[in-house]
Amino acid sequence: MLKKIVLTGAAGRCGSILRPALAAMCETLVCSDIVDSIDGLAANETYVKADLADYAAIAALMDGVEMVCHFGAIVDEGPFEELLGPNFIGSYNVWESAQKAGARRIVYASSIHAVGMHPRQSYIGTDAAHRPDTFYGLAKCFSEDLGRMYWEKRGIESVHLRILSCAPVKNARALGTWLSDDDLVRLVERAIDTPTTGFAVIYGVSDNDRSPVDNSNAAFLGYKPQDNAEQFAEEILAAEGPGNPADLAQMVHGGPFGPVPLGQGGAAAAAKGDD
Fold first, then answer.
1. Got the DSSP string for the chain?
2. Any catalytic annotation for residue 136?
3. What number is the average pLDDT over the span 25-47?
4. Given 47, 108, 136, 150, the catalytic residue
5. Which of the four CATH numbers 3.40.50.720, 3.40.50.150, 3.40.190.10, 3.90.228.20 does domain 2-272 have?
6. Which keywords accompany this UniProt record (predicted)?
7. Where are the domains of the chain?
8. What per-residue confidence (pLDDT) applies to 266?
9. Residue 2, by phi and psi: left (phi above 0), alpha (psi -120 to 50) or beta?
């Protein structure tokens, strides 16, 4: 059992799903977000309100930490200036303070939007070149590169989870991109308990028949998804009907983030229903 895990973004959807599992893996779980409080704390769990863009606040979380699960961010497209603090500077603050505190590894919630402009018909692997679809996706590219640099220059491991769609299946795209709640937990558990990882990238996706990505390069992590979105296919496909190849959202891995204008939030979040 680990002595201490720090979880950022604890009030978000993924963070809320992960908290019980993380609490069971460590003696002390320290959670943070920008809300005033969160409910249902485990006996070994504490909550600290902290802004990712505030280095001192983030560094104060890290004393004695072994693993950091960095899930905090603005999770929509928006003006670069709005994403700069939480999504770019926030990642630097996490990596810099974690390595200074002696953390062994950071598990980071990256996203398919780091490679979102690759054609959907291309079955991309974890070594696919960065092709962000938005400033939001660009922040994921930055944090992946940051993690690689800190591994190569300072020896702190990181596992970057390119999550596709961590939400209920509501459209045809999600038949391939769905990451179930239970598989999210399995994914993070393997990212934490694998003995050594160095710098690694793995797609966060369930065992979907229609998965558009290849996780074979990350097999050493031992992630074995159990759920499959095909159970929803008949109902979803009957409701949606034929697709439209002229719609960029249906033709790139980033889905609705593909056609969204740079810096314009809201539209992407309303359309995506995913990560």
1. -EEEEEEESTTSHHHHHHHHHHHTTEEEEEEEESSS--S---TTEEEEE--TT-HHHHHTT-TT-SEEEE--S--S---HHHHIIIIIIHHHHHHHHHHHTT--EEEEEEEGGGGTTSBTTS-EETTPPP--SSHHHHHHHHHHHHHHHHHHHH--EEEEEEE-B-S---STTHHHHB--HHHHHHHHHHHHHSS--SEEEEEE----TT--EE-GGGGGG-------GGGGHHHHHHHH-S--TT-GGGTBTTGGGTTSPTT--SHHHHHH---
2. yes
3. 98
4. 136
5. 3.40.50.720
6. NAD, Oxidoreductase
7. 2-272
8. 59
9. beta
Q: What is the pLDDT of residues 50-100, one digit of tens each?
A: 999 999 999 999 999 999 999 999 999 999 999 999 999 999 999 999 999
